Structure formats: C-alpha cells, structure tokens
Amino acid sequence: MRTLLLPVFFGIVWLPLRSQIADRGTYLKDIKVELTKKWPENRTLNMVFHGHSVPAGYFRTPDVRTLQAYPQLVLQAVKEVYPYATVNAITTATGGENSEQGAKRFRQEVLTHRPDVIFIDYALNDRGIGLERARTAWEAMIEEAIDANVKIILLTATPDTSVNILDEQTALAQHARQIRELAEKYHTGFIDSYAAFREKKVNGEDIVEYMSQINHPNEKGHSLVRDSIIPWLMNEQETKIRSQPAQSYIGIGKDAQLTEYSRMILGQCRARFDSSGRGAVFVARIAVLQKYYRKKRIYL
C-alpha cells in the first residue's frame, strides 16, 4: 500500500493510496498516438508477446499455427484500423516454459527487441512451480520492464478443460487472482483471459468449442484473447469501427463467408476511406474482392 504525503497547517497527514490496474484508456496513449502517424513522422513499434505454448501458437501439439494465435491476430486487428503504422508482433514465447524460465531470458531475449509494450502469459504452466515462485518470477520481469521504461500487460491463463473453470479455488483461479494483484501493485495493464472464458461457460457455452486440445485454444479461443487486448491498443471510437461487420459497408449477402484475408482488406478499406475520404482507394480494394468472389460465384 502506497501513501500520499499532504501538508496541513499543524503537521503532516498520511493518506493511503490504493493500488490499481492501469487505466485502459490512457496507459498506452503514447503508442496509440504513434500508431496514427504517417511516413515520414512514424516509427517502428514493437509489441512483444512473452510466455509459453499458447502465445507461441501451439494448437494440437506439435502443430504450431503462428498466424492463428493471438499475437498475430492482434497485429492483424491493429493493421485493420491503423493502415499507415509500421508495427511488429514479436513472439518470444517457448512451449512448455514457466515464468521462472521466462524470467531468466527476459533481459537478453525480450528487452533486446526494444519493445514498446510487452504481454506476459505464463499462468497456465506456473501451476507446476506454485504461487510463491511464480510471483517472484513475474515481479522480476515486471521490474525489469519498468526499469527499461517499457509498458507491460499481464494476462491470466486460457483454460485447461480438465479443470472446472467455475471453481474459484483451483490453481488457475488462484494464479489469476495473483496476476491481478501484481497488475494493481505495479500499476500495469491487465487482461483477464480466464474470466473471458469463464463468462462463456456461465452463459451456457461449451468451452471445448474454443479449444484445440485440453490446454491449447483454437483460433476461436485465441480470438477471444485478441478481443480482450484490442481495447488497450485502440481508442473507444476505433474499437467500435473495427467491431462493425464488414458486410454493412458493401452489402455482402448474409450467406457469403468472408475469408480472414478479405476481412483484413475490408478493414484497410474502411480505415483509409474513413480517414482520408479517398473513395478511389476504397473502390480499388473492393475490385480485388470482386475478382476473388467471382471465382467463388459470390457477387458483391
């Protein structure tokens, strides 16, 4: 618990300051500004994702689907809204690793990328080392990032379907609470992936639909994590723009199935059209889609 020193007429009053998670709207404000800049004023931004097999992209082991894992899904979503940004999603995650192992290579393998923001995701494997050792390792990484003046966002675990996600006393639930406490203590960003999946379960959904195996999400599960991260990287208005269905912009029939690539193109169209008003860019991009869908006998 931190304290605030206030002078008064006849002495000094100490008021306690409550630790809290960083404000989602302002914590990455400098990064948000950089994302909007165009050449030559812009610079390269690096998002680093550090953790175990989940951010590394393991689906059904040993199958690794890097482009369907949340680090790359986040990058794609960012590029949909910020088409002029030069931004990288760098994954330093290693399958099977816990936070103690990750902390040992943090300085040499994470900070060397000169990150603007670091995402840490180790809780799933930290059950093997326990809460106390995990806290020590997480604090070491957090403090090194803070010393390097790097923003950091802590993530709770994605599910393990052999564990009752509604039980608040499981090891995963306890690690989730500890990660929240660390985010409050150090005033960092916080993504409660575990709570996002638990909400699905509470609402009657089968968590298995979000998993490729008992402890690895599929693309649908990774998309759920991505959707929790995006509000930290975008302003509220930009998040709303991205969440609007692409069909509403060009009148695609409801039966048409957009590929991930086409959704990315539509996002770029939308961002450029909205920001510059240059309809020619929009028309040119739609022409690409028309050519693609004619082959599929789907007409725009």
Provide a quick synopsis of the model.
48% of the residues lie in helices and 15% in strands. It has 300 residues and is α/β, with parallel strands linked by helices. The strands form 3 sheets. A 5-stranded parallel β-sheet has the order 4-3-5-6-7, with helices on both faces.
Descriptive keywords:
300 residues, alpha/beta, Rossmann fold, 2 domains, two-stranded antiparallel sheet, 14 helices, disordered C terminus
Question: How would you describe this structure to a colleague?
Answer:
- The protein has 300 residues and is of the alpha/beta class.
- It has two domains: 223 residues, 3-Layer(aba) Sandwich (Rossmann fold), CATH 3.40.50.1110; 50 residues, no CATH class.
- Helices cover 48% and strands 15% of the residues.
- The chain has 14 helices and nine strands.
- It has a five-stranded parallel β-sheet, with helices on both faces. A two-stranded antiparallel ribbon has the order 1-2.
- The longest helix has 18 residues.
- The protein is globular and about 50 Å long.
- 35% of the residues are buried.
- The C terminus is likely disordered.
